[in-house]
Design a protein that fits this description.
The chain is an alpha/beta fold. 25% of the residues lie in helices and 26% in strands. The strands form two sheets. It has an eight-stranded mixed sheet. Strands 1-2 form a two-stranded antiparallel sheet. Strand 8 and strand 9 form a beta hairpin. 38% of the residues are buried.
């Protein structure tokens, strides 16, 4: 069974079915509709979850660079742009997702402040490192059960793509309990929104300089 199918079984909690519109919750593009990726290969973050997690983050961003690493339709990164992010990098491995991100950005007439890449998440982090990119906010919403959060956190550290105090927002299955702490990451918040959606937020702590 496709792991994305069971995500939609609690229809009272999850009202953004694939192919239907989602909204930008607040900011410059408030109330504008966004399209989800066609098919059942991605899980759009619901408006309820998006509103709650951005409230925890700000709710308005004082600039900053954002990485939406498993971007899907781009809803989280677009919400960040709407709320004041300086720049967002959207990454997804699926062609349909990348097309949907471009379409949503075109619909909103966003003409600057972003890049969109079709790429594997780990290769994208390596490429960001080579380009000297560093981020203040990172959204991680990988396919349930298919990508290790531990490996993602290791890659974020190894490639040095985080600014000090960067926030890492992880959307995951509530049955997958993320640890209280990761190497150089402090857990600052946890919410369970339904039997299929939980969000854990970490803050990146300054890495000690080992150079003498």
């Amino acid at each position: 069974m496709d792991i994305s199918l069971y995500f939609y079984k609690d229809i009272n909690e999850i009202n953004n079915k694939v192919g239907e519109s989602m909204r930008v919750i607040s900011g410059k593009y408030k109330g504008r509709n966004l399209k989800a990726v066609p098919g059942m290969s991605t899980r759009p973050t619901t408006d309820k979850v998006k509103e709650s997690l951005f409230h925890r983050m700000g709710p308005y961003l004082d600039g900053g660079n954002v990485l939406d690493l498993f971007a899907g339709s781009g809803g989280l990164g677009i919400e960040a742009l709407s709320r004041g992010a300086d720049h967002v990098v959207f990454v997804d491995a699926q062609g349909a997702a990348v097309k949907t991100i471009h379409k949503n950005l075109e619909t909103l007439k966003v003409d600057h402040g972003y890049n969109v890449f079709r790429q594997d998440a780990f290769r994208a982090l390596k490429a960001a490192s080579k380009q000297g990119r560093q981020f203040d906010y990172v959204f991680l919403d990988p396919p349930y059960g298919k990508v290790s959060f531990d490996k993602l956190f290791e890659a974020l550290i190894d490639h040095k793509v985080l600014n000090v105090d960067a926030m890492i927002i992880c959307e995951h299955d509530p049955n997958d309990k993320l640890p209280e702490s990761q190497a150089l990451f402090e857990k600052v918040h946890y919410d369970m929104y339904s039997n299929t959606i939980a969000v854990t937020v970490y803050r990146y702590e300054k890495q000690e300089d080992t150079n003498v």
